[in-house]
Every structure is written in structure tokens, then in C-alpha cells.
Design a protein that fits this description.
Helix content: over 70%
Structural class: mainly alpha
Strand content: under 5%
Number of helices: 6
Distance between the termini: 16 Å
Largest sheet: none
Shape: elongated
Oligomer: single chain
Radius of gyration: 17 Å
Number of strands: 0
């Protein structure tokens, strides 16, 4: 008898690894931004705490989606698709409308890169072989 891992299409394994990598980048990027915001003394500490809690909640949600995708839950890939579809226009709009100082420009690029990785992962998750595997679950 084969295990779930041996039956899982290769595309799903690649997509899950990409999603975990993007989540790790998101964690590091968020931590860096929180530290920079705290050190700037522009905002009070309550703003930093609320931003941090929001970021942690978002990262936990995305991590849960990746975990459930790796376990073959079809609803999780649909939720992640919705997150990316909703996030992409917001990120592009923020990138285009709010010109940032040169020191903050990498933040926009990292945000777009994370969404790009998620987009590539979603393409892999919605291939024919992957869709068949998710439907069997």
C-alpha cells in the first residue's frame, strides 16, 4: 500500500515548498519592519504591538493554509487563491500610488515577490494532476 506522500503529485510538493519558503520570507520581512518601526520612534508602542499582532495572525493563517494544502484539503487552496487574488491588486496599488522613499522601496518589492511566489505555487496547485489529487481527498 502506498502512503499519501508517494501518491501526491510532484507539482504539489514543489508548490508546498515554495509556499513555506514565501512564508519564511514573510516572517523575516515582517519582523524586520516591526523592529524598524519600533526604532523609528514615529509611532507609539501600541501601534507597533497591534501591527505585530495583526502580522502574527496573518502569518498563522497563511501557515495553516499551507499545512492544510500539504494534507490535501481542497478548501485550503481555494482560500489561498482568494488571499492572493485580494492581495495582488492591493499590493500593486500600494506600489504604484504611494511612492516610498528609497530606503522603503525594497518593502514593496518583497511584497510583490511574495505574491509572485504564491501565484506560481497556485498555478502548480491548480494543474490537472493536482486537481485530481485534491478531489480524491
Amino acid at each position: 500500500m502506498y502512503s499519501q506522500e508517494s501518491q501526491r503529485p510532484r507539482e504539489i510538493g514543489i508548490a508546498v515548498r515554495l509556499l513555506w519558503g514565501a512564508t519564511a520570507i514573510l516572517c523575516v520581512w515582517t519582523l524586520r519592519n516591526l523592529i524598524e518601526t519600533y526604532r523609528s520612534n514615529i509611532f507609539e508602542y501600541q501601534v507597533v504591538i497591534m501591527s505585530g499582532l495583526t502580522a502574527v495572525l496573518y502569518i498563522v493563517l497563511v501557515s495553516l493554509m499551507v499545512l492544510m494544502i500539504s494534507k490535501g484539503r481542497n478548501w485550503a487552496r481555494v482560500v489561498l487563491l482568494a488571499i492572493v487574488i485580494l492581495g495582488l491588486p492591493i499590493e500593486i496599488w500600494r506600489f504604484a500610488v504611494f511612492p516610498e522613499p528609497v530606503r522603503l522601496f525594497p518593502n514593496s518589492l518583497v511584497g510583490l515577490a511574495i505574491l509572485g511566489i504564491w501565484g506560481c505555487s497556485l498555478v502548480l496547485l491548480f494543474t490537472r494532476r493536482a486537481s485530481i489529487w485534491f478531489r480524491k481527498r
